[in-house]
Amino acid sequence: MxxxxxxxxxxxxxxxxxxxxxxxxxxxxxxxxxxxxxxASDFIKEFDFLDDGNTLIIAPxxxxxxxxxxxxxxxxxxxxxxxxxxxxYVNFLEKVTDEIKSTYNISESKKYLLGFSQGVHxxxxxxxxxxxxxNHLILCSSDFPAxxxxxxxxxKLKSAAMHFLCGINDRIISxxxxxxxxxxxxxxxxxxxxxxxxxxxxxDSVSINNILLK
Length: 214
Description:
Number of helices: 6
Structural class: alpha/beta
């Protein structure tokens, strides 16, 4: 039997969540990309410390959903048909950005892109492929994708800062895995801020606030 693989484009609805700043002129815009098995509706609540009236927080949700222990969760990609899934979520995130630009005046806003856990790999690829120029790329509690274009990353980081955060008690991303990723970045001459914090596999509000104050 001869089996052929084919792909077809379809229309699909995708969702994202956002807070409500006090005006359409926002000082900061923060894209926050959730980890494996999370939902954006829950993830955005972890950033209530950024809700100061002048900051727009955008939490897109992974395009694939599933049940885990009777709870719904979302994922950005798997090993199966991986390149197609990457292309799909980059296009989705770009469309979210375009919609935000049509609603808010973000031309003078500082732009932050944050990825957590699996969302780090998503955030890095979006950072590399987006038309938007982000000021800061914040990567939390994950290893670093080894298959990206490091020359392009170097070029993009000429006008942005990258921060690599990890909790010293993270039981999912070990110190060894984190060290391997920082070594990979150094080997490719990538400038970044290495940030360790007291805690585990979590969003550290203190570290993130320190970045936003820079």
